[in-house]
Amino acid sequence: MNTRSDENAVSPVIGTVLMVAVTVIIGAMIGAYVFGLTTNVQKPRQIGVLHVSQSNNDIIINYHGGPDSDALAWFRITAPDGTLYYSTANSLTSDFDERAAPDLGASFVLVNNATPQNDRVIVVGHFIDGDEQIIYDAWL
Q1: Are 86 and 96 in contact (CB under 8 A)?
Q2: I need a labelling partner for 126 at 20 to 30 A (CA). Which of 48, 79, 99, 113 fits?
Q3: What is the pTM of this model?
Q4: Residue 134 — φ and ψ, nearest 5°?
Q5: Which of helix, strand or coil describes residue 128?
Q6: Which domains does the chain have, with CATH numbers?
């Protein structure tokens, strides 16, 4: 039984495949840069809603500021029952038109919103440049 051991063509084929792959990757990187896909990437804002707790039937949210607190326009808080609340200087309102930036150290109380089960609270920060970011999303 004769077996032919001719491996002369293996190296050029692998080299060609690698060159095509590198060309495609470089083309994709240049295309992403040219079409602006890399320019809209934003760094996350740093806002501290450091303490969310449950006290009897109430949920208490403490606002502690952060490096980007000057850019914060207002919070939107989604209560466990789905009700939307907006921050004012040191309280909450359900009126969208009365929203305002919270004072540093303000405590917000969702009265009678806590249940014996796990309660989900979502806090979204809205910033003066129109951006928004989830600041807190957890189950109590």
Answers
A1: yes
A2: 113
A3: 0.67
A4: -70, 125
A5: coil
A6: 51-139 (2.60.40.10)
